[in-house]
Design goal:
By secondary structure, the protein is α+β, with helices and mostly antiparallel strands. The chain contains 10 helices and 6 strands; from the N terminus they run H-H-H-H-H-E-E-H-H-H-E-H-E-E-E-H. It has 2 domains: 23-201, Glycosyltransferase, CATH 1.50.10.20; 203-267, no CATH class. Helix 9 (212-225) links the parallel strand 3 (203-208) and strand 4. Helix 2 runs antiparallel to helix 3 (43-60) and helix 6 runs antiparallel to helix 7 (165-185).
Length: 271
């Protein structure tokens, strides 16, 4: 009887299967897997994730799509910012300049393509494709945090890394615009509130040199502060290796050991 039922089931029309590959969702997942691999010391997961990232890099090297296999679907704000966030994460883990440079290019493109000067926010689709009656501004968090709050976080990281005040200006513009509507939308804007906390703390770790000890320190700090701090790399060819910790523009001296770092973190109340 069971075999007969299975034969009859195979005759039924199967429901449509959504097999599209979205840039924002893939970038979000790959970033999460990469961070998990570092936290869990899972080199196998790390290598597999980096291999998948190479695939998405190849597909998006000349143009960013919403769906990899279709150029007909317009790109959205989230496609750009989540891909840029993935690239900055790779830079923060590996210290490779090429990923930082690519992310800067994308984040600059976002401002040109999606910034609405009237609302002083980033809209979901390109400003060149505005709806006839309304600009599609979306500040709500859905299955992933909204693109505006993630862009704000990216600007903060890039300001910490480059010290370019253009990023600081963008931060100020978006913060003021968000605050104007926060009271009426706070229940849907948790990612923005979290990003504000990160910006207000503004913790960064800057690594100099490339010794085995500094690599161990880097890994420990990344595990402890992923999502809460910016990781910066300077002069990796220096023979002397050390870390400088900053919080709200107040910075430590050169710290070379785990004990020195732990002591400074405790004394400075860096959470």
């Amino acid at each position: 009887m069971e075999n007969k039922l299975l034969v009859e089931r195979k005759k039924r029309n199967k429901p449509l299967f959504d097999d599209k590959s979205q840039t924002d969702q893939n970038a979000f997942l790959l970033k999460t897997l990469l961070n998990v691999s570092i936290i869990l010391d899972d080199d196998n997961l790390r290598d597999k994730t980096l291999n998948k990232i190479r695939i998405i890099d190849e597909k998006l090297k000349s143009r960013i799509f919403h769906c990899f296999e279709s150029a007909e679907i317009d790109t959205f704000l989230e496609d750009y910012v989540y891909y840029a966030s993935l690239l900055i994460t790779i830079y923060e883990i590996k210290g490779e300049q090429v990923y930082l440079d690519r992310s800067i290019q994308i984040v600059n493109d976002v401002w040109d393509k999606f910034y609405d000067s009237k609302s002083k926010l980033l809209q979901k689709n390109s400003i060149k494709n505005n709806d006839l009656f309304a600009s599609p501004i979306d500040l709500n968090d859905n299955n992933i945090p909204n693109g505006n709050s993630l862009y704000l976080n990216l600007c903060n990281k890039l300001y910490n890394i480059t010290n370019n005040r253009d990023w600081l200006e963008k931060i100020d513009i978006l913060k003021k615009s968000f605050h104007q509507i926060l009271n009426s939308n706070f229940s849907q804007m948790f990612s923005f509130i979290k990003t504000l906390d990160v910006i207000n703390e503004n913790i960064s770790f800057t690594f100099y040199g490339n010794s085995d000890e500094i690599k161990k320190i880097n890994k420990k700090l990344y595990k402890d502060y992923v999502g809460k701090a910016t990781f910066i790399y300077k002069n990796q060819d220096d023979k002397q290796s050390y870390v400088v910790i900053c919080k709200n523009q107040t910075c430590s001296t050169k710290l070379s050991t785990i004990n020195e770092i732990d002591k400074y973190i405790e004394e400075s109340n860096i959470n």
